[in-house]
Amino acid sequence: MTDPSPSRFQLTPARMIALIAVFVLVGIGCAVALVIYLTQPERGDDARIRSAIKDFASAVESGSAAQVTELLCEEEAATFTDRASAGEDPDSGGQSDVDRQRRPVDVSDVVIRGEVASALVARPPSEPRRLYFRKEGDRWKVCAPAADQFG
């Protein structure tokens, strides 16, 4: 009879303790990540606001009134639409085709207060401007009238 070959991996008490320690550390890491995620929901809103700004800049550059209107809060979209139907060109905003060329969008100082927010937005070489936003449904929309609610 032949002896069974020794196992290449033996679960010694030291290895068992090391394995348990790894599982405990992974569990603690997951718990910490979950707590951070659940206690800081504005981080998700911060990213959504930054995305809305970039989408808005692209819509303005494209010259599409429909795309711009979709990214405005209801109140501002109504004003924008009224201006367009009155014969004004709300897309141009006094910009030439050169100004409409794709320029980088720098976003900083995003502040969220409930359902309204603000962010400092710059498109070099222009100076930064504060834009205001209102959350409508699950989307953040550009909304100058939200400045009054922002306080």
The residue ranges in which pLDDT falls below 50 over 5 or more consecutive positions are 91-96
Shape: elongated
CATH class annotation = Alpha Beta
Task: Supply the number of helical segments.
Answer: 5
Oligomer, anyone? single chain
- Please identify the structural class as seen in this structure: alpha+beta
- CA-based gyration radius: 27 Å
- Taken together, the total number of domains comes to 1
State the CATH architecture. Roll
Distance between the termini: 88 Å
Summarize the helix and strand pattern as letters.
Answer: HHHHEEEEH
User: What value does the average pLDDT take?
Assistant: 82
The percentage helix is 40-55%
Strand order within the widest sheet? 1-2-3-4
What is the fold-level CATH name, i.e. the topology? Nuclear Transport Factor 2, Chain: A
Strand residues, percent: 15-25%
Biggest pleated sheet: 4 strands, antiparallel
Q: Give me the count of strands.
A: 4
Question: What features would you describe in this structure?
Answer:
The chain is α+β, with helices and mostly antiparallel strands. It has one domain (41-150): Roll (Nuclear Transport Factor 2, Chain: A), CATH 3.10.450. It has five helices and four strands. It has helices at 13-39, 42-62, 65-70, 74-85, 146-150, and strands at residues 106-113, 116-122, 129-136, 139-142. The protein has a four-stranded antiparallel beta sheet with strand order 1-2-3-4. A hairpin with a 2-residue loop joins strand 3 and strand 4 (139-142).
